[in-house]
Amino acid sequence: MTNKTEAETEEKHSLSFVEQLVEEDLAAGKNDGRIQTRFPPEPNGYLHIGHAKAICMDFGVAERYNGICNLRFDDTNPSKENTEYVENILNDIKWLGFKWGHIYYASDYFQQLWDFAIWMIKQGRAYVDEQTSEQIAEQKGTPTTPGVASPYRDRPIEESLSLFQKMNTPEAIEGSMVLRAKLDMANPNMHFRDPIMYRIIQTPHHRTGTKWHCYPMYDFAHGQSDYFEGVTHSICTLEFVPHRPLYDKFVDFLKEYDGTAAKGLDNYRPRQIEFNRLNLTYTVMSKRKLHTLVDEHFVNGWDDPRMPTLCGMRRRGYSPESIRNFIKSIGYTKFDALNDMALLEAAVREDLNKRATRVSAVLDPVKLVITNYPEDQREEMEAINNPEDATAGSHTITFTRNLWIERADFMEDAPKKFFRMTPGKEVRLKNAYIVKCTGCTKDADGNVVEIQAEYDPLSKSGMEGANRKVKGTLHWVSADACIKAEVREYDRLFNVENPSADERDFRELLNPESLHVYDNCYVEQFAAERKPGEYLQFQRVGYFMADPDGNAEHPVFNKTVGLKDTWAKQMSK
Prior knowledge:
Number of helices: 15
Distance between the termini: 54 Å
Largest sheet: 7 strands, mixed
Shape: elongated
Strand content: 15-25%
Helix content: 25-40%
Number of strands: 27
Oligomer: single chain
Protein backbone atom coordinates (compact mmCIF):
# COMPACT_ATOMS: atom_id res chain seq x y z
CA MET A 1 0.00 0.00 0.00
CA THR A 2 2.83 2.36 0.89
CA ASN A 3 4.59 1.78 -2.42
CA LYS A 4 1.43 2.48 -4.37
CA THR A 5 0.87 5.72 -2.48
CA GLU A 6 4.44 6.80 -3.10
CA ALA A 7 4.09 6.00 -6.80
CA GLU A 8 0.85 7.97 -7.01
CA THR A 9 2.48 10.90 -5.21
CA GLU A 10 5.45 10.83 -7.56
CA GLU A 11 3.12 10.75 -10.60
CA LYS A 12 1.17 13.69 -9.16
CA HIS A 13 4.33 15.69 -8.77
CA SER A 14 5.32 14.91 -12.36
CA LEU A 15 2.10 16.42 -13.70
CA SER A 16 2.32 19.85 -15.27
CA PHE A 17 0.31 22.60 -13.63
CA VAL A 18 -2.07 22.41 -16.61
CA GLU A 19 -2.76 18.74 -15.97
CA GLN A 20 -3.23 19.44 -12.26
CA LEU A 21 -5.91 22.03 -13.09
CA VAL A 22 -7.60 19.55 -15.42
CA GLU A 23 -7.61 16.94 -12.66
CA GLU A 24 -9.15 19.47 -10.26
CA ASP A 25 -11.97 20.08 -12.75
CA LEU A 26 -12.51 16.35 -13.13
CA ALA A 27 -12.60 15.88 -9.36
CA ALA A 28 -15.15 18.70 -9.10
CA GLY A 29 -17.35 17.02 -11.72
CA LYS A 30 -17.20 19.93 -14.15
CA ASN A 31 -18.58 19.36 -17.64
CA ASP A 32 -19.90 15.98 -16.48
CA GLY A 33 -16.37 14.62 -16.37
CA ARG A 34 -15.85 15.28 -20.07
CA ILE A 35 -12.45 16.41 -21.44
CA GLN A 36 -12.26 18.10 -24.80
CA THR A 37 -9.35 20.20 -26.05
CA ARG A 38 -8.48 21.70 -29.41
CA PHE A 39 -5.41 22.77 -31.36
CA PRO A 40 -6.33 25.95 -33.28
CA PRO A 41 -3.57 26.98 -35.74
CA GLU A 42 -4.02 29.81 -38.19
CA PRO A 43 -3.22 28.46 -41.69
CA ASN A 44 -0.93 31.39 -42.55
CA GLY A 45 2.42 29.58 -42.38
CA TYR A 46 4.10 26.33 -41.46
CA LEU A 47 4.16 24.93 -37.94
CA HIS A 48 7.37 25.33 -35.93
CA ILE A 49 8.65 23.67 -32.78
CA GLY A 50 6.82 26.24 -30.65
CA HIS A 51 3.57 24.91 -32.08
CA ALA A 52 4.79 21.40 -31.26
CA LYS A 53 4.79 22.33 -27.57
CA ALA A 54 1.13 23.36 -27.83
CA ILE A 55 0.30 20.24 -29.84
CA CYS A 56 1.89 17.99 -27.21
CA MET A 57 -0.17 19.67 -24.48
CA ASP A 58 -3.49 19.86 -26.35
CA PHE A 59 -3.36 16.30 -27.64
CA GLY A 60 -1.52 14.96 -24.58
CA VAL A 61 -4.18 16.12 -22.12
CA ALA A 62 -6.90 14.53 -24.23
CA GLU A 63 -4.97 11.26 -24.44
CA ARG A 64 -4.15 11.16 -20.73
CA TYR A 65 -7.72 11.71 -19.57
CA ASN A 66 -9.56 9.71 -22.25
CA GLY A 67 -10.85 12.83 -23.90
CA ILE A 68 -10.79 14.16 -27.44
CA CYS A 69 -8.66 16.80 -29.12
CA ASN A 70 -10.03 18.42 -32.25
CA LEU A 71 -8.13 20.37 -34.87
CA ARG A 72 -9.59 23.76 -35.72
CA PHE A 73 -8.15 26.06 -38.34
CA ASP A 74 -8.48 29.70 -37.31
CA ASP A 75 -9.12 30.90 -40.86
CA THR A 76 -10.51 34.38 -40.16
CA ASN A 77 -7.95 36.35 -42.22
CA PRO A 78 -8.12 35.26 -45.89
CA SER A 79 -5.41 37.72 -46.94
CA LYS A 80 -2.76 35.53 -45.27
CA GLU A 81 -4.20 32.01 -45.45
CA ASN A 82 -4.29 29.25 -48.06
CA THR A 83 -4.75 25.51 -48.49
CA GLU A 84 -1.00 24.88 -48.77
CA TYR A 85 -0.62 25.74 -45.11
CA VAL A 86 -3.63 23.62 -44.18
CA GLU A 87 -2.14 20.55 -45.89
CA ASN A 88 1.22 20.97 -44.21
CA ILE A 89 -0.29 21.48 -40.77
CA LEU A 90 -2.15 18.18 -41.17
CA ASN A 91 1.07 16.43 -42.22
CA ASP A 92 3.08 17.85 -39.33
CA ILE A 93 0.58 16.79 -36.68
CA LYS A 94 0.49 13.26 -38.11
CA TRP A 95 4.29 13.16 -38.20
CA LEU A 96 4.48 14.13 -34.53
CA GLY A 97 2.33 11.09 -33.81
CA PHE A 98 -1.03 12.61 -32.85
CA LYS A 99 -4.57 11.99 -34.08
CA TRP A 100 -7.36 14.53 -33.96
CA GLY A 101 -10.99 13.72 -33.26
CA HIS A 102 -12.55 16.07 -35.82
CA ILE A 103 -11.39 18.83 -38.13
CA TYR A 104 -13.17 22.16 -37.82
CA TYR A 105 -12.66 25.62 -39.28
CA ALA A 106 -13.55 28.98 -37.78
CA SER A 107 -15.18 29.60 -41.16
CA ASP A 108 -17.68 26.87 -40.28
CA TYR A 109 -19.17 29.38 -37.84
CA PHE A 110 -19.16 32.54 -39.94
CA GLN A 111 -22.96 32.65 -40.18
CA GLN A 112 -23.43 31.91 -36.48
CA LEU A 113 -20.91 34.59 -35.53
CA TRP A 114 -22.55 37.06 -37.89
CA ASP A 115 -25.96 36.44 -36.37
CA PHE A 116 -24.51 36.76 -32.88
CA ALA A 117 -22.88 40.07 -33.83
CA ILE A 118 -26.21 41.40 -35.12
CA TRP A 119 -27.81 40.42 -31.80
CA MET A 120 -25.11 42.37 -29.96
CA ILE A 121 -25.81 45.44 -32.09
CA LYS A 122 -29.52 45.13 -31.38
CA GLN A 123 -28.74 44.85 -27.65
CA GLY A 124 -26.75 48.08 -27.80
CA ARG A 125 -23.52 46.18 -27.12
CA ALA A 126 -21.82 46.80 -30.45
CA TYR A 127 -21.55 49.65 -32.94
CA VAL A 128 -19.95 50.45 -36.29
CA ASP A 129 -17.00 52.82 -36.03
CA GLU A 130 -15.82 54.80 -39.06
CA GLN A 131 -12.59 56.12 -37.57
CA THR A 132 -9.20 55.18 -38.94
CA SER A 133 -7.16 52.50 -37.19
CA GLU A 134 -4.74 55.21 -36.03
CA GLN A 135 -7.54 57.23 -34.47
CA ILE A 136 -8.96 54.18 -32.72
CA ALA A 137 -5.53 53.26 -31.34
CA GLU A 138 -4.94 56.77 -30.07
CA GLN A 139 -8.34 57.00 -28.38
CA LYS A 140 -7.80 53.72 -26.53
CA GLY A 141 -5.47 55.49 -24.12
CA THR A 142 -2.70 53.72 -22.22
CA PRO A 143 -2.61 51.11 -19.44
CA THR A 144 -2.49 53.98 -16.90
CA THR A 145 -4.85 56.45 -18.59
CA PRO A 146 -8.46 55.72 -19.64
CA GLY A 147 -9.52 55.76 -23.26
CA VAL A 148 -11.75 58.28 -24.98
CA ALA A 149 -15.10 57.20 -26.39
CA SER A 150 -15.45 57.04 -30.15
CA PRO A 151 -17.71 59.74 -31.64
CA TYR A 152 -19.67 56.85 -33.18
CA ARG A 153 -20.13 54.96 -29.90
CA ASP A 154 -23.71 56.11 -29.37
CA ARG A 155 -24.88 56.08 -32.97
CA PRO A 156 -28.41 54.69 -33.41
CA ILE A 157 -28.76 50.92 -33.42
CA GLU A 158 -30.54 50.90 -36.79
CA GLU A 159 -27.70 52.90 -38.32
CA SER A 160 -25.09 50.44 -37.04
CA LEU A 161 -27.16 47.53 -38.34
CA SER A 162 -27.38 49.12 -41.78
CA LEU A 163 -23.66 49.92 -41.90
CA PHE A 164 -22.76 46.43 -40.67
CA GLN A 165 -24.68 44.95 -43.60
CA LYS A 166 -22.85 47.37 -45.90
CA MET A 167 -19.51 46.16 -44.52
CA ASN A 168 -20.28 42.75 -46.01
CA THR A 169 -20.58 43.91 -49.61
CA PRO A 170 -18.07 43.91 -52.50
CA GLU A 171 -18.21 47.72 -52.53
CA ALA A 172 -17.06 48.10 -48.92
CA ILE A 173 -13.62 49.70 -48.64
CA GLU A 174 -11.09 48.00 -46.40
CA GLY A 175 -10.34 50.11 -43.34
CA SER A 176 -13.36 52.35 -43.79
CA MET A 177 -15.41 50.75 -41.01
CA VAL A 178 -15.14 48.23 -38.17
CA LEU A 179 -17.62 46.74 -35.75
CA ARG A 180 -16.67 47.30 -32.11
CA ALA A 181 -18.07 45.85 -28.90
CA LYS A 182 -19.38 48.52 -26.53
CA LEU A 183 -17.68 47.57 -23.27
CA ASP A 184 -15.60 49.86 -21.03
CA MET A 185 -13.20 52.52 -22.32
CA ALA A 186 -11.83 53.07 -18.81
CA ASN A 187 -11.11 49.43 -18.03
CA PRO A 188 -7.48 48.89 -16.95
CA ASN A 189 -7.42 45.88 -19.27
CA MET A 190 -6.85 47.48 -22.67
CA HIS A 191 -8.59 44.59 -24.43
CA PHE A 192 -11.89 45.71 -22.85
CA ARG A 193 -11.76 49.16 -24.39
CA ASP A 194 -14.34 48.56 -27.10
CA PRO A 195 -12.46 45.80 -28.96
CA ILE A 196 -12.89 45.38 -32.69
CA MET A 197 -15.15 42.46 -33.58
CA TYR A 198 -15.26 42.67 -37.39
CA ARG A 199 -13.22 44.27 -40.18
CA ILE A 200 -13.55 44.43 -43.98
CA ILE A 201 -11.28 42.18 -46.07
CA GLN A 202 -11.85 42.01 -49.83
CA THR A 203 -9.69 38.91 -50.42
CA PRO A 204 -11.41 35.68 -51.47
CA HIS A 205 -11.39 33.07 -48.71
CA HIS A 206 -9.75 29.70 -49.38
CA ARG A 207 -12.97 27.92 -48.32
CA THR A 208 -15.87 30.35 -48.66
CA GLY A 209 -14.71 32.21 -51.76
CA THR A 210 -16.37 35.63 -52.09
CA LYS A 211 -19.39 34.91 -49.90
CA TRP A 212 -17.99 37.08 -47.11
CA HIS A 213 -16.34 40.49 -47.24
CA CYS A 214 -16.40 41.12 -43.51
CA TYR A 215 -14.51 38.81 -41.15
CA PRO A 216 -14.48 38.33 -37.37
CA MET A 217 -11.41 39.16 -35.31
CA TYR A 218 -9.62 36.41 -33.38
CA ASP A 219 -10.88 37.58 -29.98
CA PHE A 220 -14.47 37.48 -31.19
CA ALA A 221 -14.26 34.17 -33.06
CA HIS A 222 -12.04 32.08 -30.81
CA GLY A 223 -14.01 31.76 -27.60
CA GLN A 224 -17.28 31.35 -29.45
CA SER A 225 -15.79 28.59 -31.62
CA ASP A 226 -14.65 26.81 -28.44
CA TYR A 227 -18.17 27.17 -27.06
CA PHE A 228 -19.87 25.91 -30.23
CA GLU A 229 -17.65 22.81 -30.28
CA GLY A 230 -17.97 21.94 -26.60
CA VAL A 231 -14.34 22.57 -25.68
CA THR A 232 -13.78 22.11 -21.94
CA HIS A 233 -10.20 23.38 -21.73
CA SER A 234 -8.86 26.04 -24.06
CA ILE A 235 -5.10 25.74 -23.52
CA CYS A 236 -2.96 28.52 -24.98
CA THR A 237 0.21 30.53 -24.39
CA LEU A 238 0.90 33.30 -21.92
CA GLU A 239 0.30 36.23 -24.28
CA PHE A 240 -3.41 35.38 -24.07
CA VAL A 241 -3.61 35.95 -20.29
CA PRO A 242 -4.91 39.54 -20.73
CA HIS A 243 -7.35 38.26 -23.37
CA ARG A 244 -8.96 35.78 -20.97
CA PRO A 245 -11.47 38.22 -19.35
CA LEU A 246 -12.65 39.24 -22.82
CA TYR A 247 -12.84 35.56 -23.84
CA ASP A 248 -15.12 34.93 -20.84
CA LYS A 249 -17.16 38.09 -21.47
CA PHE A 250 -18.00 37.11 -25.03
CA VAL A 251 -18.94 33.60 -23.82
CA ASP A 252 -21.27 35.23 -21.25
CA PHE A 253 -22.91 37.24 -24.03
CA LEU A 254 -23.21 34.08 -26.12
CA LYS A 255 -24.89 32.21 -23.27
CA GLU A 256 -27.37 35.04 -22.98
CA TYR A 257 -27.88 35.04 -26.74
CA ASP A 258 -28.58 31.29 -27.03
CA GLY A 259 -30.68 31.18 -23.88
CA THR A 260 -28.59 28.79 -21.79
CA ALA A 261 -28.05 31.36 -19.05
CA ALA A 262 -31.79 32.06 -18.75
CA LYS A 263 -32.57 28.34 -18.60
CA GLY A 264 -30.07 27.75 -15.80
CA LEU A 265 -27.95 25.53 -18.04
CA ASP A 266 -24.82 27.41 -17.07
CA ASN A 267 -22.59 24.55 -15.97
CA TYR A 268 -20.62 24.42 -19.21
CA ARG A 269 -18.05 26.98 -20.27
CA PRO A 270 -14.59 26.54 -21.80
CA ARG A 271 -11.79 27.17 -19.31
CA GLN A 272 -8.78 29.04 -20.70
CA ILE A 273 -5.39 27.98 -19.25
CA GLU A 274 -2.12 29.60 -20.31
CA PHE A 275 1.44 28.22 -20.34
CA ASN A 276 4.83 29.56 -21.42
CA ARG A 277 5.89 29.60 -25.05
CA LEU A 278 8.84 27.63 -26.36
CA ASN A 279 11.73 29.88 -27.34
CA LEU A 280 15.06 28.56 -28.61
CA THR A 281 18.47 30.16 -28.73
CA TYR A 282 19.89 31.24 -32.09
CA THR A 283 16.55 31.20 -33.90
CA VAL A 284 13.23 33.04 -34.14
CA MET A 285 9.66 31.80 -33.74
CA SER A 286 7.83 34.80 -35.18
CA LYS A 287 5.78 33.73 -38.19
CA ARG A 288 6.30 37.17 -39.69
CA LYS A 289 10.07 36.81 -39.50
CA LEU A 290 9.97 33.23 -40.75
CA HIS A 291 7.89 34.42 -43.70
CA THR A 292 10.56 37.05 -44.40
CA LEU A 293 13.34 34.47 -44.33
CA VAL A 294 11.44 32.40 -46.90
CA ASP A 295 10.09 35.22 -49.08
CA GLU A 296 13.42 37.06 -49.28
CA HIS A 297 15.32 33.81 -49.93
CA PHE A 298 17.57 33.87 -46.88
CA VAL A 299 16.66 30.17 -46.63
CA ASN A 300 15.56 27.63 -49.22
CA GLY A 301 11.89 27.41 -48.31
CA TRP A 302 9.87 26.54 -45.21
CA ASP A 303 11.46 23.10 -45.03
CA ASP A 304 15.03 24.39 -45.08
CA PRO A 305 16.80 22.27 -42.43
CA ARG A 306 18.03 25.43 -40.68
CA MET A 307 14.47 26.54 -39.99
CA PRO A 308 12.69 25.81 -36.67
CA THR A 309 9.70 24.53 -38.66
CA LEU A 310 8.61 20.94 -38.10
CA CYS A 311 9.00 20.18 -41.81
CA GLY A 312 12.52 21.66 -41.70
CA MET A 313 13.42 19.53 -38.69
CA ARG A 314 11.92 16.47 -40.34
CA ARG A 315 13.99 17.09 -43.49
CA ARG A 316 17.10 17.62 -41.37
CA GLY A 317 16.60 14.24 -39.72
CA TYR A 318 15.05 15.02 -36.34
CA SER A 319 12.73 12.28 -35.13
CA PRO A 320 9.26 13.14 -33.80
CA GLU A 321 10.09 11.22 -30.63
CA SER A 322 13.12 13.41 -29.98
CA ILE A 323 11.04 16.57 -30.27
CA ARG A 324 8.39 15.19 -27.94
CA ASN A 325 11.06 14.10 -25.44
CA PHE A 326 12.65 17.54 -25.54
CA ILE A 327 9.33 19.26 -24.90
CA LYS A 328 8.63 16.91 -22.02
CA SER A 329 12.04 17.64 -20.51
CA ILE A 330 11.62 21.44 -20.48
CA GLY A 331 8.07 21.25 -19.11
CA TYR A 332 5.26 23.81 -18.88
CA THR A 333 5.36 26.79 -16.57
CA LYS A 334 3.89 30.27 -16.13
CA PHE A 335 7.23 31.95 -16.89
CA ASP A 336 8.75 32.58 -20.31
CA ALA A 337 12.27 31.25 -20.78
CA LEU A 338 14.90 30.93 -23.50
CA ASN A 339 15.75 27.26 -24.02
CA ASP A 340 19.23 26.31 -25.17
CA MET A 341 19.33 24.74 -28.63
CA ALA A 342 21.91 22.33 -27.17
CA LEU A 343 19.15 20.74 -25.06
CA LEU A 344 17.13 19.97 -28.16
CA GLU A 345 20.17 18.57 -29.95
CA ALA A 346 21.00 16.40 -26.93
CA ALA A 347 17.47 14.95 -27.07
CA VAL A 348 17.94 14.27 -30.79
CA ARG A 349 21.28 12.50 -30.18
CA GLU A 350 19.84 10.37 -27.41
CA ASP A 351 16.93 9.23 -29.55
CA LEU A 352 18.84 8.70 -32.80
CA ASN A 353 21.51 6.68 -31.02
CA LYS A 354 18.82 4.06 -30.43
CA ARG A 355 17.31 4.09 -33.93
CA ALA A 356 19.94 5.23 -36.47
CA THR A 357 21.58 2.74 -38.87
CA ARG A 358 25.38 2.95 -38.82
CA VAL A 359 26.96 3.50 -42.22
CA SER A 360 30.35 4.60 -43.55
CA ALA A 361 30.89 7.94 -45.26
CA VAL A 362 33.97 10.08 -45.86
CA LEU A 363 33.35 13.82 -46.08
CA ASP A 364 36.88 15.11 -46.76
CA PRO A 365 38.56 12.20 -48.55
CA VAL A 366 42.16 11.27 -49.10
CA LYS A 367 43.24 8.05 -50.87
CA LEU A 368 44.58 5.15 -48.81
CA VAL A 369 46.27 2.32 -50.73
CA ILE A 370 46.82 -1.02 -49.01
CA THR A 371 49.96 -1.91 -50.95
CA ASN A 372 50.14 -5.59 -49.96
CA TYR A 373 46.46 -6.29 -50.65
CA PRO A 374 45.73 -8.01 -54.00
CA GLU A 375 44.66 -5.48 -56.65
CA ASP A 376 41.75 -7.54 -57.97
CA GLN A 377 40.46 -8.83 -54.62
CA ARG A 378 37.17 -7.72 -53.04
CA GLU A 379 35.79 -8.76 -49.66
CA GLU A 380 32.39 -8.19 -48.14
CA MET A 381 32.74 -7.18 -44.50
CA GLU A 382 29.85 -7.46 -42.08
CA ALA A 383 28.73 -4.17 -40.53
CA ILE A 384 26.32 -4.10 -37.59
CA ASN A 385 23.41 -1.75 -38.32
CA ASN A 386 22.92 -0.57 -34.75
CA PRO A 387 24.82 -1.88 -31.70
CA GLU A 388 22.03 -0.47 -29.49
CA ASP A 389 19.39 -2.62 -31.20
CA ALA A 390 19.97 -6.35 -31.46
CA THR A 391 17.04 -6.66 -33.90
CA ALA A 392 18.45 -4.16 -36.40
CA GLY A 393 20.54 -6.75 -38.22
CA SER A 394 23.58 -6.02 -40.36
CA HIS A 395 24.69 -5.26 -43.91
CA THR A 396 27.89 -5.77 -45.87
CA ILE A 397 30.45 -3.20 -46.94
CA THR A 398 32.99 -3.87 -49.71
CA PHE A 399 36.71 -3.81 -48.88
CA THR A 400 39.34 -3.36 -51.65
CA ARG A 401 42.96 -2.31 -52.09
CA ASN A 402 42.04 1.35 -52.68
CA LEU A 403 40.11 3.14 -49.95
CA TRP A 404 39.01 6.61 -48.93
CA ILE A 405 39.60 7.85 -45.38
CA GLU A 406 39.07 11.24 -43.75
CA ARG A 407 41.92 13.66 -44.40
CA ALA A 408 41.87 14.64 -40.72
CA ASP A 409 42.60 11.02 -39.79
CA PHE A 410 46.15 11.26 -41.16
CA MET A 411 49.07 13.26 -39.86
CA GLU A 412 52.60 12.82 -41.14
CA ASP A 413 54.29 14.30 -38.09
CA ALA A 414 51.84 13.48 -35.31
CA PRO A 415 51.96 14.32 -31.61
CA LYS A 416 52.21 11.49 -29.08
CA LYS A 417 48.48 11.25 -28.37
CA PHE A 418 47.38 11.22 -32.02
CA PHE A 419 45.82 7.75 -32.23
CA ARG A 420 44.91 7.83 -35.88
CA MET A 421 47.00 7.17 -38.98
CA THR A 422 50.64 8.23 -39.00
CA PRO A 423 53.77 6.60 -40.47
CA GLY A 424 54.97 3.60 -38.50
CA LYS A 425 51.82 3.25 -36.37
CA GLU A 426 48.99 0.71 -36.56
CA VAL A 427 45.25 1.43 -36.62
CA ARG A 428 42.24 -0.76 -37.21
CA LEU A 429 39.99 -0.13 -40.18
CA LYS A 430 36.49 -0.64 -38.75
CA ASN A 431 34.94 -4.03 -39.59
CA ALA A 432 38.13 -4.94 -41.54
CA TYR A 433 41.85 -5.25 -40.85
CA ILE A 434 44.65 -3.71 -38.82
CA VAL A 435 46.95 -1.67 -41.08
CA LYS A 436 50.31 0.02 -40.57
CA CYS A 437 51.03 3.28 -42.37
CA THR A 438 54.22 3.12 -44.47
CA GLY A 439 54.26 6.59 -45.98
CA CYS A 440 52.46 9.13 -48.15
CA THR A 441 52.67 10.90 -51.50
CA LYS A 442 52.38 14.68 -51.89
CA ASP A 443 51.71 17.01 -54.78
CA ALA A 444 53.91 19.94 -55.84
CA ASP A 445 52.33 22.16 -53.18
CA GLY A 446 53.06 19.71 -50.39
CA ASN A 447 49.50 18.45 -50.02
CA VAL A 448 49.04 14.78 -49.21
CA VAL A 449 47.31 13.07 -52.15
CA GLU A 450 47.83 9.43 -51.20
CA ILE A 451 48.66 7.42 -48.11
CA GLN A 452 50.23 3.97 -48.23
CA ALA A 453 49.80 1.21 -45.69
CA GLU A 454 50.17 -2.55 -45.31
CA TYR A 455 47.52 -4.80 -43.81
CA ASP A 456 47.82 -7.79 -41.49
CA PRO A 457 45.82 -10.58 -43.17
CA LEU A 458 45.37 -12.34 -39.82
CA SER A 459 43.73 -9.34 -38.14
CA LYS A 460 40.33 -9.36 -39.85
CA SER A 461 37.48 -8.36 -37.52
CA GLY A 462 35.75 -11.47 -36.20
CA MET A 463 38.64 -13.73 -37.11
CA GLU A 464 39.86 -15.98 -34.29
CA GLY A 465 42.92 -14.45 -32.66
CA ALA A 466 42.35 -11.13 -34.44
CA ASN A 467 41.50 -9.15 -31.31
CA ARG A 468 44.96 -7.62 -31.04
CA LYS A 469 44.43 -4.20 -29.54
CA VAL A 470 45.38 -0.96 -31.26
CA LYS A 471 44.54 2.50 -29.99
CA GLY A 472 42.82 3.85 -33.06
CA THR A 473 39.89 2.72 -35.23
CA LEU A 474 39.09 4.53 -38.47
CA HIS A 475 36.10 4.40 -40.78
CA TRP A 476 36.57 4.11 -44.54
CA VAL A 477 34.87 3.38 -47.85
CA SER A 478 36.17 1.48 -50.83
CA ALA A 479 37.33 3.78 -53.64
CA ASP A 480 36.32 1.01 -56.06
CA ALA A 481 32.83 0.38 -54.63
CA CYS A 482 31.43 3.67 -53.36
CA ILE A 483 29.10 6.44 -54.46
CA LYS A 484 30.01 10.11 -54.66
CA ALA A 485 27.68 12.23 -52.54
CA GLU A 486 26.86 15.74 -51.45
CA VAL A 487 26.67 16.48 -47.74
CA ARG A 488 25.07 19.61 -46.25
CA GLU A 489 26.24 20.63 -42.81
CA TYR A 490 24.29 23.21 -40.83
CA ASP A 491 25.21 25.70 -38.15
CA ARG A 492 23.09 28.08 -36.09
CA LEU A 493 20.80 30.24 -38.22
CA PHE A 494 21.64 33.40 -36.26
CA ASN A 495 24.88 34.69 -34.77
CA VAL A 496 23.31 36.00 -31.55
CA GLU A 497 21.80 33.93 -28.78
CA ASN A 498 18.46 35.72 -28.65
CA PRO A 499 17.79 37.46 -31.99
CA SER A 500 14.20 38.24 -30.98
CA ALA A 501 15.45 40.48 -28.16
CA ASP A 502 18.02 42.28 -30.31
CA GLU A 503 17.04 45.79 -31.44
CA ARG A 504 18.83 45.46 -34.77
CA ASP A 505 17.10 44.28 -37.94
CA PHE A 506 17.01 40.52 -37.54
CA ARG A 507 18.35 40.10 -41.08
CA GLU A 508 21.63 41.62 -39.91
CA LEU A 509 21.96 38.91 -37.28
CA LEU A 510 21.90 35.95 -39.68
CA ASN A 511 24.89 33.62 -39.62
CA PRO A 512 26.50 33.70 -43.11
CA GLU A 513 28.17 30.36 -42.32
CA SER A 514 24.96 28.53 -41.42
CA LEU A 515 25.30 26.17 -44.41
CA HIS A 516 28.43 24.38 -45.60
CA VAL A 517 28.23 22.03 -48.57
CA TYR A 518 30.70 19.16 -49.05
CA ASP A 519 30.42 18.13 -52.69
CA ASN A 520 33.30 15.64 -52.84
CA CYS A 521 32.16 13.04 -50.34
CA TYR A 522 31.98 9.28 -50.70
CA VAL A 523 29.53 6.86 -49.10
CA GLU A 524 29.20 3.11 -49.14
CA GLN A 525 26.62 1.67 -51.54
CA PHE A 526 24.27 0.70 -48.70
CA ALA A 527 24.16 4.32 -47.48
CA ALA A 528 23.45 5.62 -50.99
CA GLU A 529 20.35 3.46 -51.13
CA ARG A 530 18.78 4.96 -47.99
CA LYS A 531 15.70 7.12 -48.44
CA PRO A 532 14.49 10.32 -46.74
CA GLY A 533 12.95 9.33 -43.42
CA GLU A 534 15.59 6.69 -42.63
CA TYR A 535 17.81 7.73 -39.73
CA LEU A 536 21.54 7.27 -40.28
CA GLN A 537 24.72 7.65 -38.31
CA PHE A 538 27.85 8.35 -40.35
CA GLN A 539 30.29 6.54 -38.10
CA ARG A 540 32.56 8.86 -36.09
CA VAL A 541 30.95 11.91 -37.75
CA GLY A 542 27.34 12.41 -36.71
CA TYR A 543 23.70 11.71 -37.56
CA PHE A 544 22.44 12.27 -41.09
CA MET A 545 19.42 11.80 -43.32
CA ALA A 546 19.04 11.49 -47.08
CA ASP A 547 17.56 14.61 -48.67
CA PRO A 548 14.82 14.57 -51.34
CA ASP A 549 17.17 16.52 -53.65
CA GLY A 550 19.32 13.41 -54.10
CA ASN A 551 18.92 9.95 -55.62
CA ALA A 552 20.78 6.61 -55.59
CA GLU A 553 23.22 7.79 -58.28
CA HIS A 554 23.89 11.17 -56.62
CA PRO A 555 22.75 11.05 -52.99
CA VAL A 556 22.45 14.18 -50.89
CA PHE A 557 22.59 14.03 -47.11
CA ASN A 558 21.70 16.54 -44.41
CA LYS A 559 23.67 16.53 -41.20
CA THR A 560 21.17 16.28 -38.38
CA VAL A 561 23.50 16.76 -35.44
CA GLY A 562 27.05 15.81 -34.47
CA LEU A 563 27.94 13.00 -32.12
CA LYS A 564 28.99 15.57 -29.53
CA ASP A 565 28.05 19.16 -28.73
CA THR A 566 30.90 21.06 -30.36
CA TRP A 567 28.98 24.36 -30.48
CA ALA A 568 29.15 24.91 -26.70
CA LYS A 569 32.91 24.37 -26.78
CA GLN A 570 33.30 26.91 -29.59
CA MET A 571 31.26 29.53 -27.75
CA SER A 572 33.28 29.07 -24.54
CA LYS A 573 36.57 29.90 -26.26
